[in-house]
Predict the structure of ABC transporter ATP-binding protein.
Amino acid sequence: MTALASIRDLTVTYRRDGNEATALKDFSLDIEAGERLAIIGESGSGKSTLALAIAGLLPASTKTEGKIDWFLPSALGVKAPPSVLPDMSGRTEGGLVEHRPQKLFTRSSHPPRGGRDIGFVFQDPSASLDPVMPIGKQIAEVARTHLGLTWSQSYARAKTLLERVRLPDPDSALRAFPHQLSGGQKQRVAIAAAIAAGPKLLIADEATSALDTIVQAEIVALIRRLVTEDGMTLLFISHDIALAAELAGRIAVFRHGQLVELGMTAQIVGAPAQPYTRALLDAHIGLDTKPLLNRAGLHA
Ligand SMILES: Nc1ncnc2c1ncn2[C@@H]1O[C@H](COP(=O)(O)OP(=O)(O)OP(=O)(O)O)[C@@H](O)[C@H]1O
């Protein structure tokens, strides 16, 4: 396998009101092209910080050290990101590309473009969907902006995507507003928008956590199918190791901003090397419950 992104010695420190909090410490990892990698850990362990660092979406006040090398195809025909997605474009300096605002450097011909190279699915689809724009337009806008399609081509793509995420009656769904859909349906739309421009990397950050168990399983199955069909690399962030194990080829376990254990899913689930990983497995859910940590002789 070849790396899609290589993260080296990444340390992320948030600064607020004169205080500093280090959310990631000396973190190194290669994300292999085409793999399904899960990031697991309890609340506050730094999972979302990693996702934001990778996507170039950390707040400008954040202090970062280390680097991320990207191995992306050429950026020929690059279009500006659409207004619905954050602008994470950088500038080229002597072959290296600055990755704003955290000054992580990439080795590829361009920094990763939000929406184009990286698709992002969050826990709350309402955070990424515009409540006053028909969902067809939201998906079409991503395709139009990044792929240079006409509106009619973009709407055709949006309809195909709504079919692919199995939204009932895609024709009328194109004209629906987010509030007319269930939570699971909204997440399907958010996924359709996230993959509309054919990203290489799909980051799903607690994408199923707000859903009930059955819908969770459906969304996991949907993500697995789409990632396979489109040959995407998946970064699946979750506090639920059992859920992640259903989807991931590799699992990285986080604790207090550091990598505790990294391995193939079968090894992590069948023979974890670390007591903390064993504790997560024993819990399955409710990873931050104190009794569990106590049982394993660990402290939160
Ligand atoms: N914008 C921010 N400003 C200051 N501190 C932050 C900020 N974002 C996160 N943190 C802190 O960084 C640490 C890691 O947070 P992060 O959100 O990355 O963890 P997480 O594992 O994703 O947790 P959760 O599952 O609850 O989202 C936490 O201590 C958190 O309070």
Remarks:
- The two ends are 36 Å apart (CA to CA).
- Residues 75-102, 285-300 have pLDDT under 50 and may be disordered.
- The first helix runs from residue 47 to 55.
